[in-house]
Amino acid sequence: MGLSSILMIAGIAVIIISLLFKDKSARVEKDVEDLSINIYQETNALKRRVKALEEELLVEPNFQVRKPSSVQQNSAQQAAFSSFQQVAAQVKAAQSNGTAPKVNPSKSTKPINGILVSQVLALNSQGLSIEEISKRSTLSHAQIHSIIANGGQQ
Fold first, then answer.
1. Are 84 and 111 in contact (CB under 8 A)?
2. Is pLDDT above 60 for 73?
3. Packed helices 141-150 and 114-125: angle between N→C axes, nearest 10 degrees
4. Among 1, 77, 106, 134, which one is most buried in terms of CB atoms within 10 A?
């Protein structure tokens, strides 16, 4: 028996032993594939949820949140609070007088979202009253009259 026959017997033994053990790489590949499919499904589910939330909140798709500096935030909060106090005082005065509150026309109003404009026009074409449209769209009566009068043009 020479060296070559010992090596040949050892090689055959190794091949037989390797056939008896299960291949672990196939199991790892299957686990990686399952994991990638799960991640893909979860990502799609999250995208659908975000899209539904955007539609629900009537947010534009390119909406970005910026964190203002503390000085700007405080001044913006103070301005919003003072305008709220003015409107509250007007409403309180109007309720005590029994008249409708007056809106200051000199202040510029924010543009109305396009989705709200189309919603108001659709509800108006269905024959709903201004009061019902106001309840459904969270817009004031003046804004609804303006949208209907302009035909949706801002």
1. no
2. no
3. 80
4. 134
Q: Give the pLDDT confidence of 9-51 residue by residue, as tens digits.
A: 999 999 988 888 777 788 889 999 999 999 999 999 999 998 8
Report how far residue 38's alpha carbon sits from residue 46's, in angstroms, rounded to the nearest whole number. 12
pTM of the full structure: 0.31
CA 27 to chain centre: 39
**Euclidean distance between CA atoms 131 and 117, whole angstroms:** 16
- CB neighbourhood size of 137 (10 A): 20
Q: Is 147 exposed, middle or buried (CB count within 10 Å of its CB: 0-12, 13-18, 19+)? A: buried
Contact (CB, 8 A) for 103 and 96: no
